[in-house]
Structures are given as structure tokens and as C-alpha cells.
Amino acid sequence: MSVFSLKVDIVDNQFYTGEKSPLFTREEAQKARSFHSKLNGYQPTPLCDLTALAKEIGVKKVLVKDESKRFGLNAFKMLGGAYAIARLLCEKYNIDISTATFDTFRSAIKEKMTFATTTDGNHGRGVAWAAQQLGQNAVVYMPKGSAQERVDHITGLGAECIVTDMNYDDTVRLTMKTAQEHGWEVVQDTSWEGYTKIPTWIMQGYSTMADEAVDQMNAMNVKPTHVFLQAGVGAMAAGVLGYLVDVYGSDNLHSVIMEPELANCVFRSGVKGEIDNVSGDMPTIMAGLACGEVNPLGWPLMRSCTKQFISCQDKVAALGMRILGNPLGNDPRIISGESGAIGTGILGAVHYHAQRKQLMEKLGLNADSIVLLISTEGDTDVKHYREVVWEGRHPCFEG
Ligand SMILES: Cc1ncc(COP(=O)(O)O)c(C=O)c1O
Predict the structure, then answer these.
(1) CATH top class, domain 8-75+204-389
(2) Which of ligand 1's atoms lies nearest the C-alpha of 234?
(3) Is 281 noted as a catalytic residue in this protein?
(4) DSSP one-letter string for 234-262
(5) For 53-75, what is each residue's pLDDT tens digit?
(6) Residue of 17, 332, 370, 380 whose CA lies nearest to 214
(7) Which of 24, 70, 74, 77 to mutate for ligand 1's pocket (most ligand atoms within 8 Å of CB)?
């Protein structure tokens, strides 16, 4: 007989203090959103109210922010890269961010610039997009095993794209070294000693989507009780969580950070109370989350304001992709890629689990819960999306 089997490890954060960060605040988020909202094609992405799914799993609301609709780029990531490049140019040419637009920068830039970065796909696509909008160059490095479709999206925006034979974290080091040799500007979404300004701006840029979500929830007259955020290096999770705890108060939000078990550096760090990185190959299907080194800038906030950490199997994300792609009742369909669907997958895995009651209790989920999730990407690897959703790869049942 086949058995429903999905592994979801949940740990409570013993180091929770609720202490907020002055870097990731409502004020900073609104600066970023004001910049983004001046870009051509800006529109808040939908916050989908999955009423039938909420009823099925026994909570009040499941709200999913659909980032596949972000500027036609199929993921949230450009919010960070574009904002960091804008702040960098403001600093270089003494421009006020509150009035800046891409037009301002295009007329201010004196010499051709090259922006360099490492990516699993989405961040590099955002940097390539911003560079193209500004008429500048981008060089994008990707780790080994990167999907050809993700490479094509980047080269399609006029950037040079190089797939290395290294994992993500070693590729970041290679990019840094090569950029230094060539005098390129590195626009990286993780930080290290002496490299904090750009990643701070990137993280602040991500909070635009949280600011939109708060407006959308206010319009529905609801406040989230739970937020589930996925982490690669944790820049998105920290940027968004920092903003949300500033708005709602840390103690009023059951915040959970989720990762694939094959790249669970934030989870391990959460258990230890200090950064505990993962090395080697990280062959998870959640390519956007396949990072082994925690962003040190975001770590203090994740340590102080996250209530729980989750590490789960790839099959969980696959379940989430299928749930969102095949909605119940009148719920809208969301095309969610591997890294986008993990949160919905966890809700599904808990619902079908033999220990459903205990897991719901552990996560503090009940009929009053209003759960905020971010589907951070659409089908950025269409071939794999179909293998999962049509062909049933990574099934929930074993045996
Ligand atoms: C789709 C998607 N979701 C989530 C993340 C995680 O972001 P971070 O690396 O900031 O934790 C990424 C990172 O690239 C991503 O591409």
C-alpha cells in the first residue's frame, strides 16, 4: 500500500527576543516602494485569498502574494537588484532617491558601467533587467547545474551569463574576485565583511512586496497571525520579516522561516543560535533556496524575530506547486515554481500528515489563523514545472 510521506522538521527558536532591526523598517520599505512605483509597468502583485484552501485545511485565511506577476519577470527578485542599483547611482551622482527614476539615472551616468552578480536565476535576471533599462552592462555568474531556461532569460536581457563548475557560495567568491580585477560593481544579495551597503539596499527593496501586502490586507480588514517565509541566504526573509514586525510587532506574528533540507543553513543556525553554514553540492529542486551560507546582515533579525524554523523535503515544494496550480472551488490559480511553493506545500503536508493535529498545534494554526505566504516565483523552469505538475515528479506517496 502506498503511504503519504513528507518530512517536515519544525523547531522552536530558543533565541527569540522580538528585537527589531533599525535597517529593515516601514520607513525604509516605503522609500523603496516609492522608487519602484515610478518604474514603467509597476503594479502591486495580487494578494490571492484562497478561501477554499483555507476551509480545506482548517484555517481562517490563506493569503498568497503572487510574485510571478512582478514586472513580467516571473519572480520578486528584481525589487532588490533594481533598488540597490538605484541607491548606488544616487550615491555616485548625488541624486535624491525620493525623486530618482531610471530617466534621471540614464542622463546622469557619465561612463559605461558593468554590474556583476551571482544568481540561481531570479536575482541575476533582475540585475540584467535593471542594467538593460539603464543602458549599462551586466555580467551574471551561475552555479553548476543551472537550468538553461534561466540562463536564456538572462542573456535575453543583453547580459553576459557564465555557468561555473562551482556551487552558489563559491561562485559568489569568484564573482567578487573577477569584478575587482575588472572594476565592475558587484550587486550581490548576500553580505560579508566590508560588503554590506548593497545587500542592505537589496533587502530593503524586497520589502516593497510586504508593504503592498499590508495595504492589501488592510483593504480586506485583516491582519496576519502567521507569516511563512522561504530562505536561500535569508535576505528576503529578513528584509520582509523586519518590515512586518515593525508594522505588527514581533510578538503579534507567528513567523516561520522555511528551507529545503538539502540547503538548510538558516534552520541549522536557528537550532544553534549562531550561523552554521552548509557546504558542498545542494541538489534541491528549490534552486532559489539552494544556498549554504546565511546572509550575516539578515541573521540577527532572523535570530531575534523568527518563532520557528522549518526544514523539509523537496517533495513538499512539489506538493505546493500542484496545490497552487490546481485550485479548489473558486480560488484563483497560481503558477508557482519550486522556491515559491514551499509554504503552501508545508500547509498541505501538515494537513495530510498522520500527526496533523500535533503539527497544527505546534505551528499554532487553528480556525482563527490568517496565514500570509509569498509565492516568490512562477514557472521559472517550465520544463521542471511540467515534470512536477503534469508528470507527478517528486510524489507525496511512497511504496
Ligand atoms: C524564487 C526565490 N524565492 C526565494 C529566494 C530566497 O531569497 P534569499 O536568498 O534572499 O533567501 C530566492 C533567491 O534567489 C528565489 O529566487
Answers:
(1) alpha beta
(2) 11
(3) no
(4) SHHHHHHHHHHHHHH-GGG-EEEEEEEGG
(5) 999 999 999 999 999 999 999 99
(6) 370
(7) 77
Atom of ligand 1 nearest to the CA of 380: 1
Q: Is the pLDDT of residue 1 over 60?
A: no
Element (H or E) spanning 342, and its range? helix 342-352
Which of these ranges, 3-12, 88-97, 388-397, has the smallest mean pLDDT? 3-12
Half-sphere exposure (Cβ direction) of 122: Cα atoms closer than 13 Å: 32
**Are the beta carbons of 121 and 287 closer than 8 angstroms?**
yes
Place of cell 552548509: 278
Where does 37-167 have alpha helices with state H?
A: 51-57, 78-93, 102-108, 122-134, 148-155
Phi-psi region of 293 (alpha: psi -120 to 50; beta: other; left: phi over 0): beta
pLDDT tens figures, 322-374: 999 999 999 999 999 999 999 999 999 999 998 999 999 999 999 999 999 99
Point out the catalytic residue in the list 120, 314, 379, 381.
120
Greater confidence, 258 or 133?
258
The C-alpha atoms of residue 234 and residue 236 are separated, in whole angstroms, by 6
Residues of the chain with CATH 3.40.50.1100: 8-75+204-389, 78-194
* Mean of the per-residue pLDDT values of the chain: 95
What lines the ligand 1 site, CB under 6 Å? 75, 77, 120, 122-123, 189, 230-237, 288-289, 291, 339-340, 376-377
Q: Whose alpha carbon is nearest atom 16 of ligand 1?
A: 288
The type of residue at 73 is: L
Cα 113 from Cα 107, distance rounded (Å): 13
- Beta-carbon contacts of 92 under 8 Å, excluding residues fewer than 6 positions away, are none
Per annotation, catalytic residue among 20, 77, 307, 315: 77
Task: Give the pLDDT of residue 120.
Answer: 87
CATH among 3.30.870.10, 3.40.50.1100, 2.30.130.40, 3.90.1150.10 for 78-194 = 3.40.50.1100
Annotated catalytic residue 38:
no
pLDDT in tens, 197-247: 999 999 999 999 999 999 999 999 999 999 999 999 999 999 999 999 999
